[in-house]
Amino acid sequence: MNFKTNKRVPFVKHRKKFFLFSLVFTLAGIILLSTAGLNLGIDFESGSKVEVLADETLTEEEVYEQFAEAGSGYEPDDVTLAGDNNEMAYASFIGTLDQAEIAEIQNYFVDQYDNEPSVSTVSPQVGQELAKNALISVLIASIGIIIYVSIRFQFLYGVASIVALLHDAFFIIVVFSIVQFEVNVPFIAAVLTIVGYSINDTIVTFDRIRENMNETEEIKTFDDLAEVVDVSLNQTLTRSINTVLTVVFAAVCIFLLGGEAIRSFSFALVIGLIAGTYSSLFLASQLWLVWKWKSLEREKNKPKKEDPEDLEPEV
Amino acid sequence: MVKKSRIVAFFVIIALLGGIISQTVMDTAKGINLGLDLQGGFEILYEVNPAEDGSEITEETLQATVSALNQRVNVLGVSEPNISIEGEDRIRVQLAGVEDQQTARELLATEADLSFRDVDDNERLSGEDLEENGASVGFDQSNQPVVTVTLRDGNAFGEVTEDILNDYSPPNNRLVIWLDYEEGDSFAEEYQQEEPKYLSAPAVNQPLYHKNIQIEGNFELEEAEFLAEVLNSGSLPVELEEIYSNAVGASLGEDAMEKTIFAGFIGIGLILAYMMIYYRFMGVVAAITLSAYIYIVLTIFNWMEGVLTLPGIAALILGVGMAVDANIITYERIKEEIRSGRSIMSAFKSGSRRSLSTILDANITTILAAGVLFYYGTSSVQGFAVMLIVSILTSFLTAVYGSRLLLGLWVKSRIFNKKPRVFGVKESEINEL
């Protein structure tokens, strides 16, 4: 893959389409999240999860019946089957079971299947705290990144990389709303991983833009600036593709071959990696381009405004 | 002009590295503690409330609770329990590999506050009157298991029994033995129940001036042993309320672990193969440094006695990605420099130098994010952050300096002079200076 000047990928030319696509996606995502919402696991909603392991294949009806047999009032709000032969079942209850209820259920299933079911419970505050802390962390980290990038680069690079970062995290959340996979603690880890990857990816591209900006003599028109961005993106394109490909190898392998428990986690990783590459190539740099041009234009007009003697007669 | 000594040095380093890794990697891998999500087990987060109204939860009461819980966990025979204080009033108990969750739950949360009361629920003797470690299991005449406890003061028990005899007439001449008596519990009510909350309500027929007493309660042997152990591990100074628990079946955890390790091997194998095909000789160097990276991360993690969880694996994957990325950035730079017409030697030097600042910026921003996550996150997010920081630092060392050292030995031997194809650059792509 050698991108010479004559066969460059015209990233900047189509920037408005990318902006429009991301805007539409974001709006659709907000609508989707406010209607369909997320399939929150009990990590985030008050509830209990009972993990039943049987010797034989189970069906959903059977599991509901078994719970009804175990005692009055045990009606799972959701039952999902797992395992190679559906010999496992996860029954979730909204609202926490107390210790006596847990014991009753466990005793019943020990008699039935000779296997003690695992019971997990969570009160709403714990899950919400976890999500809240993760969110606060991401926001604070974003501010830290803006500060660091502003010192090392320029303020606008920092803002654009944070937009890319939030875009990628939001993208995963929306996809999870579409497919309605369960959102649990590993999901948060996946989103955080993508946040890390997204920063890394965007900064590498920005580094090249900055370098090329230093080497460019003078920027007079928008096209001059666009040229720098286009060249930089093309110079780092091979690296971007190779890097994301290698990481996607790992994530897809874990998705296909890893255990059931890790599947939604690795799915989130794959989605996030794609979003991360997209945002670095098509979103962050183009946003920076537009903003940078505006600030350059403002600077050009500045000297007039700064000189009060020049200004006053006009007023 | 080829300096063979450098190439020899390269192979010596590889041989040493290969030797160390192959000798110790299995021990390292086995030494890593796996989280509950990977090996199965049981985790409870308790909110600690004062046992009596008005008292406050202090650092000391939390510490005392943790040591009491530690003793109790020993009863379960858990090899490496992890009991930690979280925030101001929470205690997280992680029991890896526990099969019997029900017993664990009971054992942990039982206050073990033994009290002796009359039928009107007035306290006559409390848990504090018990001798430490004085509880054991015995058998009565009909070979029924009983729990024997030793009191500190035989006279006190004698007086209590005498008082009962004076104050009450049959059938109310009882000394009711309660475990974890709570405000509102009443003997009169529980007496009607099929399974009363109190342990036993023996009748007192004569004053008993001795220290050893028996608690009978139609126990099964296991129940009696459980009770004795709980009493010996002391009463909890606080009330524990379960606010979160997470249980992973051992078989499920093991299954996840095996499959994930297998998938990880395949994934890393693919990455190495891709690097070697795309970057030729440089890819081989990348493969060597990546192997070293994974080995070093696991070793450091072992030293830190970290617990590897699913989020930890996520951080490891991200670290692999960043290590690969650092290699790719450097190699792409070197290729660019070769294409621009520089000699292999100077392309290597300037490529390494110019890629360094890029890698540094990318890594520092990610470490910054990881640091914030560590500071604000709770247990699993923190684990992720720690693993991420270790991964980034290690990947920086191996992918930047390791790669530079190994590749430098070959480049400086001059064996590759005028051989850009080794670096995946075609002669036709090179611009004349």
TrEMBL record, chain A:
Record-annotated Protein export membrane protein SecD/SecF C-terminal domain positions: 115-292
Gene3D superfamilies: Multidrug efflux transporter AcrB transmembrane domain
Domain of life per record: Bacteria
A GO MF term: protein-transporting ATPase activity
Matching InterPro entries: SecD/SecF_arch_bac, SecD/SecF_bac, SecD/SecF_CS, SecD_SecF_C, SecD_SecF_C_bact, SecF_bac
Main location: membrane
Bilayer topology annotation: Multi-pass membrane protein
Assigned protein family: Belongs to the SecD/SecF family. SecF subfamily.
NCBIfam families linked: 2A0604s01, transloc_SecF
Listed name of the protein: Protein-export membrane protein SecF
Organism: Alteribacillus bidgolensis
From TrEMBL, chain B:
Pfam families in alphabetical order: Sec_GG (PF07549), SecD_1st (PF21760), SecD_SecF_C (PF02355)
GO terms for cellular component: plasma membrane
Protein's UniProt keywords contain Protein biosynthesis: no
Membrane topology summary: Multi-pass membrane protein
Alphabetized InterPro entries for the sequence: SecD (IPR005791), SecD/SecF_arch_bac (IPR022813), SecD/SecF_bac (IPR022645), SecD/SecF_CS (IPR022646), SecD_1st (IPR048631), SecD_SecF_C (IPR048634), SecD_SecF_C_bact (IPR055344)
Protein translocase subunit SecDF P1 domain location: 63-121
GO biological process, one term: protein transport by the Sec complex
Locations listed in the record: Cell membrane
A GO term for molecular function: protein-transporting ATPase activity
Coiled-coil residue spans: none
Keywords: Cell membrane, Membrane, Protein transport, Translocation, Transmembrane, Transmembrane helix, Transport
Residue ranges of domain Protein export membrane protein SecD/SecF C-terminal in the record: 239-407
Transmembrane segments: 260-277, 284-304, 310-334, 355-377, 383-411
NCBIfam families (UniProt xref): 2A0604s01, secD
Record family assignment: Belongs to the SecD/SecF family. SecD subfamily.
Function of the molecule: Part of the Sec protein translocase complex. Interacts with the SecYEG preprotein conducting channel. SecDF uses the proton motive force (PMF) to complete protein translocation after the ATP-dependent function of SecA.
Subunit-level organization: Forms a complex with SecF. Part of the essential Sec protein translocation apparatus which comprises SecA, SecYEG and auxiliary proteins SecDF. Other proteins may also be involved.
Name of the protein in question: Protein translocase subunit SecD
Species: Alteribacillus bidgolensis
Gene: secD
